[in-house]
C-alpha cells in the first residue's frame, strides 16, 4: 500500500476519469481503500427510498469516491497540479511542501518559501581529462 499524499481540506486536481480536469476540495479520505471524496467531482445519481431525510424518495445526486492516484494537489502559488514532498522542521514535525513552488499546500499553514532551509548542493562540473584518475595497469 502506498502513502497517502492527500488530506481532508486539500484542493486537488483530477488527473484521470470522467471528471478529468476538474478541481475541488477533499471532503473525506478513506485510507484503507485509498479513495477520497472530492467536492463537485465524480457525481453519481443514486435511487433512494422515502425516508425522514428524503420524504419524497427518488433520485439523489452525490459525490462518489475517486482513487487517490487520480488526484494531484494544487500548487498554492501557481494554481497548477504539483507533486509534494515532506520534510521535518526544527520541532521534528513533518511538513508537506509543493515541489514547484516550495510552499506548503494546505490553506491553514503559512505559505512562506523554504528555499533558505534547503541544503546547498554544488553544481556538477564537466569532467576533464586531467581530473579523471588513470589506472596504471591499463593502457589507453
What this model shows, in words?
- By secondary structure, the protein is mostly beta strands.
- 0% of the residues lie in helices and 33% in strands.
- The chain contains no helices and ten strands.
- The chain has strands at residues 11-14, 23-30, 35-38, 43-48, 58-63, 66-67, 71-74, 81-82, 84-88, 94-98.
- 14% of the residues are buried.
- Residues 107-118 have low confidence and may be disordered.
- Main β-sheet, in a few words? 6 strands, antiparallel
> Average pLDDT value?
79
Number of helices: 0
Derived from helix and strand composition plus strand pairing, the structural class reads: mainly beta
For the largest beta sheet, what order do the strands appear in spatially?
Answer: 6-3-2-1-7-8
Distance between the termini: 50 Å
- How much beta, percentage-wise? 25-35%
Number of strands: 10
SSE string, helix = H, strand = E? EEEEEEEEEE
Taking all Cα atoms into account, the compactness measure Rg is 24 Å
User: Which blocks of ≥5 consecutive residues have pLDDT under 50?
Assistant: 107-118
Name the shape in a single word. elongated
Relative helix content: under 10%
